Amino acid sequence: MNIQLPHSTLQSGKHLLLSGSKSESNRVLILQALFPELTVQNLSTADDTLLLQQALSSHTEVVDIHHAGTAMRFLTAYFAIQQGKEVLLTGSPRMKERPINLLVNALQQLGADITYTEKEGFPPIYIRGKKLINNEIHIQGNVSSQYSSALLLIAPALPNGLTLHLEGEVTSLPYLKMTTNLLAHCIGQEQVLFKANTIKVNTMNGKNLLHNSWEVESDWSSASYWYAFVALSPIGTTLSLSYFKSHSLQGDSALKTIYEFFGVHSSFKGNELTIEKVAEPQQKRFEYNLNATPDIAQTIAVTCVAMGLECHLTGLHTLKIKETDRLQALQTELRKLGADVSTTHDSLHLAPCPHLRSGISIATYNDHRMAMAFTPLMLKTNLEIADKEVVSKSYPSFWHDVAQLTVKR
């Protein structure tokens, strides 16, 4: 079902409580499955997290995680060490096009028993859980940090721990640090060593966790859409969001710095984040390397097109293996609005767009971030978002929040 978005205004002075971070929630759920004494508060309500919870408690031989890429990677590693358990791990047609061979190869180096049931290198995969004795592997660091995180999350449960060597440039480093920081919180800082491109995690071998509780911070990726809303609003517009930490584990907290360019200032009072439009951009060209935070690329590109700014984004090579090829999808949909856009395998260039077309229907390609990233354009024109239900993957209450915070002009 599509949703019509009339030309609207963001109401100033409102407050939103956002759901827990999907990235944090999915990591801590794997740790909780390995160490049941761990208690967790403020879990994400996103589809991806619910699917992971269901999969972890499932007693069936076939586990279908649909479009949940993080769940596919994390569960591949988790099921590989569940001795005596055999699982066919599968997903949607798009999931079957997303490569998993680097992770499977790494697990096989540790001794895992995993076979492909359809196309070599891609899901579905058949996993026969066993005890993994080997404890040292090499993996490319420039493809997806989720592969490395999947391996690190099971490391404390391996009989000999794990030493992980990352080869080449490391993509999405903040997400990798989120994983190691969560591990350090649970098992102790001295049990997790991250030096240069090598990460060593010691085994717990039946020892108790150092800390057995975790409160998940709200999701900075979800907050990105509200940064865009405020950026496209008049000077003086404010919006408060919670529950957020000034020193966050989430890479997308870089929004605080990035959106200063667009005139949005961030401030904290306890765990409440207030964002305010304080100025218009002082420069006409925005350039940024998003290698560490690729999930906010769509939001930033849409912000720039709405503000008539030139934009050059790099570090986007992982976007091609997401829910859709996000680079191609961005190019196609931005062009519908009248933008001049060009892309390479890892970059996007947007020329200043002096006028946005109205009444455009934005295709979402089964990608939650396409739907939400384009929504703030409703502050500049009227548009339609196709397949509105897709937002449930990460932010189920998104349309409710949009309706509560905006008024038709």
From TrEMBL:
<dbReference type="InterPro" id="IPR001986">
    <property type="entry name" value="Enolpyruvate_Tfrase_dom"/>
</dbReference>
<dbReference type="Pfam" id="PF00275">
    <property type="entry name" value="EPSP_synthase"/>
</dbReference>
<comment type="similarity">
    <text>Belongs to the EPSP synthase family.</text>
</comment>
<dbReference type="InterPro" id="IPR023193">
    <property type="entry name" value="EPSP_synthase_CS"/>
</dbReference>
<protein>
    <recommendedName>
        <fullName>3-phosphoshikimate 1-carboxyvinyltransferase</fullName>
        <ecNumber>2.5.1.19</ecNumber>
    </recommendedName>
</protein>
<dbReference type="InterPro" id="IPR006264">
    <property type="entry name" value="EPSP_synthase"/>
</dbReference>
<dbReference type="GO" id="GO:0009073">
    <property type="term" value="P:aromatic amino acid family biosynthetic process"/>
</dbReference>
<dbReference type="InterPro" id="IPR013792">
    <property type="entry name" value="RNA3'P_cycl/enolpyr_Trfase_a/b"/>
</dbReference>
<keyword id="KW-0808">Transferase</keyword>
<dbReference type="GO" id="GO:0003866">
    <property type="term" value="F:3-phosphoshikimate 1-carboxyvinyltransferase activity"/>
</dbReference>
<comment type="pathway">
    <text>Metabolic intermediate biosynthesis; chorismate biosynthesis; chorismate from D-erythrose 4-phosphate and phosphoenolpyruvate: step 6/7.</text>
</comment>
<keyword id="KW-0028">Amino-acid biosynthesis</keyword>
<dbReference type="GO" id="GO:0009423">
    <property type="term" value="P:chorismate biosynthetic process"/>
</dbReference>
<feature type="domain" description="Enolpyruvate transferase">
    <location>
        <begin position="58"/>
        <end position="400"/>
    </location>
</feature>
<dbReference type="GO" id="GO:0008652">
    <property type="term" value="P:amino acid biosynthetic process"/>
</dbReference>
<dbReference type="InterPro" id="IPR036968">
    <property type="entry name" value="Enolpyruvate_Tfrase_sf"/>
</dbReference>
<keyword id="KW-0057">Aromatic amino acid biosynthesis</keyword>
